[in-house]
Known about the structure:
With 666 residues, this protein is an alpha/beta fold.
Amino acid sequence: MVDDVTAALAGITAALPAGGEHRPGQEAMARAVGQAIARGRHLVVQAGTGTGKSLGYLVPAALSGRTVVVATATKALQDQLAEQDLPRIVAGLGPGAGLTFAVLKGRSNYLCRQRAAEVGEAGAVHEQLELVPSGDRVPGGDRVPSGDRAGAATAGEEPPGIGAQVRRLLAWAETTETGDRAELSFEPAARAWAAVSISARDCPGAYRCPSGDSCFAERARARAADSDIVVVNTHLYGAHLASGGAVLPDHDVVVFDEAHEIEAVMTDSLGSEVSSGRIRALATQARTLLPGAAGAEVDDVLEAASLVDDALAPWVGRRVAPEVLATGSDAPLGLAVERALRRLERLVASLRRVDGGGDGDRNDGGDARARRDRAVLAGGHLIDDLAHLAGLSDDEVAWVEDAPRSATLRVSPIEVGPILAEHLWPDHTGVLTSATVPPGLAGRLGLPAPDTDEIDVGSPFDYRHHALLYVAAHLPDRRTPDAEAAIADTMAALIDAAGGRTLALFTSWRAMHAAADAVRQRVPHRLLVQGDLPKSALTDAFRAETETCLFATMGFWQGVDVPGPSLSLVTIDRIPFPRPDDPVLQARRERAGGAAFRQVDLPRAATLLAQGVGRLVRSATDRGVVAVLDSRLATARYRAELLGGLPPMRRTVELDEVLAFLRGLG
Ligand code: SF4
């Protein structure tokens, strides 16, 4: 098996467009992954930039004879696997291998035939637009985007362009083969797409749906079930676990690429959330289905939604203790949740009694029955989530987040390790890989130590000669009044020496704008600032215009790939410690007690710092400087933990040396 992997990898990389090259780290990774799958042992692989880690796990996965799900954190990587790497492997192994693969997305990424039929037949664009609780998380790995809220439209007030977009989507539904939103030739507004799509939470399933036989999402799932390798995003994998295994086809092995993201994604996916928007959406649905006499029940639920809103308001930005929500609580929030629960139970019971038409067969009763079934299903999920709030365990944390139209009460597990240890690792071999594996990740994810191996295959890049790490030890403490001006002075000098070509990373929007304002007047190069353009357009412009600088915040610390002369300098404004008010991290700190800093904050800062530093060298010929404008990296007791996670670059605290190095890059 291991020799087969080596031979197949050599053949596939030799056929790469650039002629390919032998990468010892990639080969070591592929052999280790092959062995891990064959032996059923979990494997954590740190594979530095340039390893070619996707082929390092895909080739052994393809040869394993097992069914494999690959979960990625970004769409860019998902596209790379499906459009480049996997087709190359299929071609390299030849038709005799019979390797098949598929991409599977969350249900709301596919047009819903049933909702499209209802909108089309009834011309019910207004009604459909009212039923979407925009901004709510939906099982299936997706979130209905905020900022374009449903419910704003009232009968007779079609928002400009939305109705036309829906009609365009209905026309597309007649011609598309896949129903995949990504294949649209235009970007619909969130509300237009919401009118013809559905979340996994609200879909009754093909068996109970009149359009089940022609359902795009079901077809995609069937294709995935017939495939050897299925590519998904990590959120969808989290939704799969949260659903008890109902989302993805059976599989033997799961590969998590960008494994440094797993803990955060699973924390999010394995939680739940309740908002008044969700309650109101159900009431609006129910009003169209219930006889007039039941209107009072709908009004009761709408009143309960308002009470929930009022009770959530004082908690925005704060954690909510379990006793506030526990059964019998006399706190206003607990009482409001309890009242909403009871009224929803009555409403859903009434919905169940509605004769949707037909005698139970999914094709009897048609659209009316389908709408009733969906409302009952959505109501059942909402009741479950509200009831769960009344009995939160000490292993969960609840808090209230602000949102454009209504606050949201969210619940997450404090630790995901015990859940994964019970529900994932016993039945699936896990392969986890990242360029920066956070310290202690395997333990926090519940991987059983006796059955788990960890390796580091390094990076093929010559960091020692090509890159310099500069720590600006002379800068004053950030909290002093003259710190910002001193940082701006240093940044301007560095950017000038680099001839532009700078990615300036910040830990806050405020710091980014302050630095951009201060530096803009002092360097002759164009400054692109996050927020001026969409992320992809900013990155494209930065890549295309060689002497341009890009100032950006946390969304650009990872996943930005700019090889070549456009990037010679990465500046980092401060060590990226997590926010002190993050509710999940607060709960973890309390559990860790005196070890909180080292167990909770330091590993996250080390990983994110390494991700930021990793933006610099993206190809074997890249050269440049990473400048950390935070003197703590030169002085703090914990600096060794942070420096230990970085590539093996030469280090200096001498500004003159750095300026000379940058000028020498030409
Ligand atoms: S099963 Fe029916 S309701 Fe569910 S996504 Fe498919 S068409 Fe839509």
